[in-house]
User: Fold these one by one.
Assistant:
Number 1:
Amino acid sequence: MGAPSLLLCLSAALPLLLHADECQDIRMLTEAQPAKQPFAINCTSPLLTAAARATWYRHPSEAPVSTDPQARVHQEQSWILFLPVAWGDSGTYRCLINDTDVCHQVHVNLTVFGKYGCRRNSQRNLPDGHEQILHVGGDDSLSCHLNFPKSCVLDLNSVKWYKDCKEIKEKRFKNWEKRLLVNNVSAEDRGSYVCKANLTHAGRQFTVSRRIAVNVTEIVGYAGRFPKITHPINNTIEAQLGSSLTVNCTITDSRDNTNLRCWRVNSTLVDDYYPEPKRVREGNETCVVFKEYAVYTVSITFLEVKMEDYGFPFTCHAGFMSAAHFLLRPPAPDGRVYLMGGLLAVVGAAALVLCASRRFRIDVALWYRSAFVSTSTTAAVANVIDENIKLCRRLIIILAPEPLGFDLLKNMSEEQIALYNALIQDGMKAILIEVEKVRSYASMPVSIQYLRQKHGSVQWSADAAAGAPCAKARFWKKVRYRMPPKRFPPPSTASSGAHAL
């Protein structure tokens, strides 16, 4: 079982060995680290693609550095990690980067030296020191270069700063993550600084430190090309009340600069200004390094925009000369939204009424009839009587004996409407039938007198009731005479054609 595994490892490493001589050198680094200190180097480059793969070697060995996270010296992604540095780690390390079509190499010369003392001026010009500059008369900052992979957890609350072996506690100095903020820089701030912090990896605790040799200089000709803030541009940003928002500050600056990049409100750091924890906070700084400059990005995040945030300047600072701000404002109302909302409300109401009318139309009609029933039905009855009378072609009025009286005509709506049609509209002819001989029409209504004068009358005769056939009785002949002639239906088309034949 061991032989196949060995062959597999050799076959995987063989392409790297074959192409090692063809790789292009892109960087040569020199590092000096004290013994017993955690240390890490990253060999990635912004020019490489996401598909690039890095492999670390220690010269002259052609075997890759171990990837076991429990090993003191091992590789994690593109990092080589020393936990901690030992005396025997001095030497040359090579990072081979295989990209899609190219191969690059990074060489690192590492020198390990003994732990330095803490006598005054003993730290000057030691090989692990980083040189940084503070500018007199303004606010500036120092950076603690503690760069490790994500597997190493750096306790930012444990960061402490020392000057000439004494912990810094003056109010002009303030710790902020991996930076030391210095207000009102003076010539006395020149000296040797050390930053220390606690680091945890795979449950193991370490103390890591970095030395910084600090010089001071006057602000002469500083208003040059860098730093330059490209966003924000002193503009206004719309944000909905209660929404979340993230704004990036993009800064172009020279490589290896020491400028402080941060967000402030009223000259106060954002994280210190807001008492409510984490509602408004500054994000971590990211950096993309190019050949002659670097682009930094620092974000400010609002987990919930509140009314107190509107109209307030949030300022991004880069160093002590460059600054840019933005203001928050609520979004302007969109008239189209209100118009669309109104139209939708009208359409919805109409649809609701239509559905309700279809579903409850019978109940509504019955309720309306019971709630608004008319107390008088004389307009409706009169219309029905009038329409039915207009269908008649003759009006027959039987004159009863005088004791019955003619007041009946004054109270019956049917007779009144019929007389109106016969007298006023002249829509039908009247036939007066006298049951008994009327001696005088003077006591009769004027309408009856008029009809008697216009159409005459027919008197009931005894032969009509003596058993003679109705059609041959004199009385019925007079009645039939006054009746309209009988109507026959017009001949159909088929019968007309038959006659023609």
Number 2:
Amino acid sequence: MLGPQVDRNLLQKVIGLARALRYHSHNMGALRGQVKKVMHPDTFYFTILRHPVEVAASAFSYYKSTASAFRNISLLDSFIQNRLRFFRPGAKRNNYARNLMWFDLGLDPQKNHTQTAEIFSSLDDTFGIVLLAEYFDESMVLLRHALCWSLDDVVTFKLNSRSNATIKAIYQETAVRLRQWNSLDWALYSHFNTSFWDRAVHFVLARLDAEVQELRARRNVLATLCLQGSAVEGKIINDKRFKPFQPVAVEILAYKLKPGLSNEEFTRCSRLILPELQYKDRIYAPQFPRKIRPPIN
């Protein structure tokens, strides 16, 4: 969600703030009534969704030591086959284990499952656009036009991604069970997948594809300017400014900047690779003096 004074260079972190997890001090769920109390009346709200099977697999890896339902289980297949044995509604951090996107949007999985039509209508009214992670570049093109931004305003590098070594293939049977287990997320994703492509068709698909190619070309230019090759395992990053948080059960990738960048280039490039926790600190710095910290709810 963006107010009139938001720095455009914070785009990739604003997306995280828009759909992130309420249990972290640097993120929040979409408690829309409370948010609107402090935001400008003409604030443009947007969020991003991801295929529920991929969300479930990522959450299992990332929150392995956090969600009580995932502890002492080595494989996602084992969890989903015995989910009722491991999952207890209301148990500590178990919001990560089922219908996570539904929870992130401020919805109660225990109360809202019979009111999806009304909920989707309300969400349609709230969000100016709902993006799709699987079509991130297409999402950035549509978002920049919705906000009248330039191409450079939406150029990003992929952050917070898992290394290939920690990503396991998902069996078809497991995928089916995950969709069933996360049925609210599946309904949510299906609804906004339709609205996303309706918007893309209205934009004109050929035009969308052309602008996606332009966006990717610009990203390649900046990658050549900024980066020492592709993303690497975060554990080998020595500079704490660019070292991402490493969960217990997964390796998060990061980038190394090229040496010899000018001050202007370093500022621009470092913003593109800054991990979420460090970016949170950067956002907080002017808002909360060192002696005053925001409450953690």
Number 3:
Amino acid sequence: MAAVSPQSVPEKPFDFRAPPPSPIASGRRSSVTNDDVLTEYLEHSLRVPDLILPDKVFPRQKFIENPPRIDFQALDSKESYDTVSKIVDSITTIGCFQLVNYGIPSELIKSALAAATGIFQVSPEKRAAVTRSPEKPYGFEEVHGEEEIEMSEEFVWCRDENLMLEMEGIWPLGYSKFSEKMKTLLEDIEKLAEKVLGILRENCMRKSMQGDELVEELQENFVSVCLIHKDSHNILADFSSLRYDVIRMLIRGGDYSHALCLHICDGASEFHVYSKKGWVSFCPDKDAILITAGDQIQAVSGGQYKHVIGRPIYNKQKEDCISMAFLYAPPTIITSFTPNLEKGKTISLSQQFIVALLLTLVYHFLVYVYKKF
């Protein structure tokens, strides 16, 4: 039988066709028959959860009783011990108190507030020349849209010749008169702040100089400034706008290092006090000046006095509401707290050892001289 050549055997070609695709189930049901558990899991896992900010990021609002009303004229009386104790306790606990009967004419305050409305009537095109920046810590706060302008506006005023020249260029008719009223008002405000700061210095119990180098650095070339704020709508009715305003304010809270902040906010429906630990609010008294503690006084007191940020809230829809916040930072805040810090100063063991060694050497030298001569 003849052998068959391998080349003569016909070869079966390979089949490269891919298998048919699996049937695709419609909707979100599983391909497994009657697998309700898997289907329910997939439906829930594909949903985007609702994100809620925790209280630690944006704490809830807490209403408290009004801080004590401090009669400024009573601070110089012989029975001022109770008044001083109220100031210290209020600054230590919530970082804020109310000051009444402070001696500043109401006409001066009202005229300054009325004149401040003219600042915000300057057109956005002209404001661009006097916009606040790191190199220029005064002027209009930068805004990013028409909605932000309608919600609130802010202007930073200070006794600066450059600011005077720039503002007179865009508001020539009214700025000079407004600036003169503000200078007079600031002088009276600084007298109040100096008196309160002296009381807090005398009653500073927990003493620590930690953070003084930072305070000195922040305070360098500082001049007292006033933040002039205008609210243009019912902010209480719009919680989202309030939250945005609060977050922006907390971010900007460190722009101006200060010891005390004195708030003029006549007609405010509420006053909010923000700190790292929480957010409290109360209804301020009519014609009262609200005083809050700054970062400098917290540093020089070793944390006894709490740094907070104050913000008046208005519940008016028909008219614009103007408020002022005067930031006070005296050049002598660190040295003024220093004497109290040195009262309890002790001598270390190494210093005592050196003194004892020197006295011993002096004694032996005197004995030697006495025996020699």
Number 4:
Amino acid sequence: MSMKKYSEKAPDQGRKKLPSVNRGASVLERDDFDAGPTNLDCIEPGLWLGNLTAATDVETLSRLHINHILTVDSCPLPRKITMLPGVKTKFIQVTDTPREDLLSHFAEALDFIKAGQETSVVLVHCYFGVSRSATIVIAYIMKKHNLSYEEAFQRVKERRRFVGPNPGFQSQLRLFELMGFQIDKHNVQFRMFRLQIAADQVKKVKILPQSCVDVMKSDPNLITVRPEPLVYRCRKCRRILASASNLLPHVKKEKPSWVDDKWTKEDHSTLALCSETYFVEPIVWMTCVTNNLQGKLHCPKCNSKLGSFSWIMGCQCPCGSKISPAFYLVPSKVEWSNMVQNVQVTL
């Protein structure tokens, strides 16, 4: 396949965008088709990376036999493209901001590219073809060829010289590498990442949106076949409140961050972990956290005060570490136990 570049002109990222418009109850359309001339580059046989103009250039799509188009943008493609016979499209709605969650879309995006590349030709695009779509293509190259982020980035950049994922997307690609090119929901960094994304959303809409309900963990008090051996219970009524896996570690006097890969180490014995306050993930018995920005946490059985939570202000631990968002249990109000009680006996 020809490696011809249809435009060597770099996208004008300083170009003023016109606002997108909403012409329906839930259908977004855009007015800002001003991403410059048709611009796309062949990353490898069957995979192209380009801008919005390329994705709407019917002649170019036909000439290159592109019949799979992945849009990673704030608005979908116009119907004149999505309704083209023989063309399969997929739309992932994200903005080009460092705190946007693109990582959670990797699996569906990479599956779409793989299926398309195996049978035809795929174009991945965003507005300029620089950040969002480049992030997806880099992730695909990482997984397909078992490459590190840096190696995959260089490979893509050799084909399209002005690719540049924003800093947040770069960190998400590095986390993708650390998780072995898949989403590991048990990974501490990923859990911290999703919690930060949820906090950003709660600050905007004042409630926990449906897209972030995965941060609410199941109630460890429920009967289960394989309960965790170490749990934290209400000191007054002994109701199980959290499992050891629900705890979010932090180092004394340090603000924890999901971009810090120290949490990927299996052995945390070398870290000065703090236990002065038990910071945990939000758990479903904390019903008040889904529709309040901050408040108190009470035992769901005896109503004893256990701690507090805050999506917006966070909490200052006595050790000096600032945690945000924060869901914490006061150690004097709870006790830990390794007595398994919530086990389901099966015959």
